Amino acid sequence: MEANMPKRKEPGKSLRIKVISMGNAEVGKSCIIKRYCEKRFVSKYLATIGIDYGVTKVQVKEREVKVNIFDMAGHPFFYEVRNEFYKDTQGVILVYDVGQKDSFDALDAWLAEMKQELGPHGNMENIIFVVCANKIDCTKHRCVDESEGRLWAESKGFLYFETSAQTGEGINEMFQTFYVSIVDLCENGGKRPITNSSASFTKEQADTIRRIRNSKDSWDMLGVKPGASRDEVNKAYRKLAVLLHPDKCVAPGSEDAFKAVVNARTALLKNIK
Ligand code: GTP
Ligand code: MG
Question: On the chain, which terminus has fewer CB atoms closer than 10 Å, C or N?
Answer without folding.
Answer: C
